[in-house]
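Researcher: Please generate the 3D structure of the following complex. Treat every line as part of one assembly.
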Amino acid sequence: MDIKKLQKLFKDQPKYRLEQTQKSLFQGLINNWQEAMGLPLNLRKELEEKFPIEISGRTFISKDKNTIKALIDLEDGSAVEAVLMRHKDTRNTVCVSSQVGCPMACSFCATGRMGFKRNLEVWEILEQILFFARYLKKINEKITNVVFMGMGEPFMNYQNVMAAIKILNDKNGFNLGARHISVSTVGVVEGIERFANEELQINLAISLHAPDNKTRSEIMPANRNYPIEKILKAVDEYVKKTNRRVMFEYLMLKGVNDSDEHAKALIKLMKKPLYFVNLIAYNPTGIYNPSPASRIKKFKEILESAGITVTQRREFGQDIEGACGQLATLPR
Ligand code: SAH
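Model: Done. Output below.
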């Protein structure tokens, strides 16, 4: 499903035809071109041949039915996972992958441990979203939020991720508001700098997970290239330019980064306007132990007593290996 190819196909046609076609695809959510009733039959035939839009994927549904994971097959035999989270309050959030595997090698993350295969193309990012948009259409619901928190490091595939976001946001594309889109990064400094200059109101999240370089480098090898002070400098610049809030994700690993001292060190970094911390319970990947709920509560209280805004991430889909850090499409 190559968007550029689609655009080329329409270069000799009136402009409204491409718009109409894109709208059937991204808003009509047709499953195949035969369903695009507004298009002439010969065009539908041509599209069917040159630009197939069927998506091959399998779904896994959690016991509580709130999480659906899709394993989507790609043309080269690789596969990626995307996850739909159905919140009680009518939000439907899709978590998408930006790469097959991931080069960042974080020790707590299953994707990091499967290694890196390749970047995803723009349409391979979009088809994950289309897959769930079609799925939800059957029950008269819609995707309300998209987060780039699946497999891979989005800022290591910057161009394709941004191109996909533009189509998500476009009024002839998915028409999803920028404020409903979030990108999470391990802290790729060049990426944060570029992101600050995009004239879009997309949300930025940083996977911090430790308040000092020693601890962070132990669990996140990327910290050697992108240490905390460099990341925060780029984030401050981003905040200055955009005046937008930034979420700092903090994974709670028992005995690794969850002590009172870690909390106090974190306060020093986070005491800035528009910063907030999102505490994440560790989803098992076979290496660490999760911090007990009582420890997370205490850690949160220490931060809050210093005036830091703290939110806690709700858990989704552990039983289908669809939770944060559990996505992997190669044997471990
Ligand atoms: N590479 C990007 C995008 C991945 S987002 C990034 O690092 O931000 C996935 C989020 O889940 C990140 O914050 C990641 O650090 C976190 N995560 C990874 N493994 C996890 C695990 N086992 N349990 C809970 N969260 C995890």
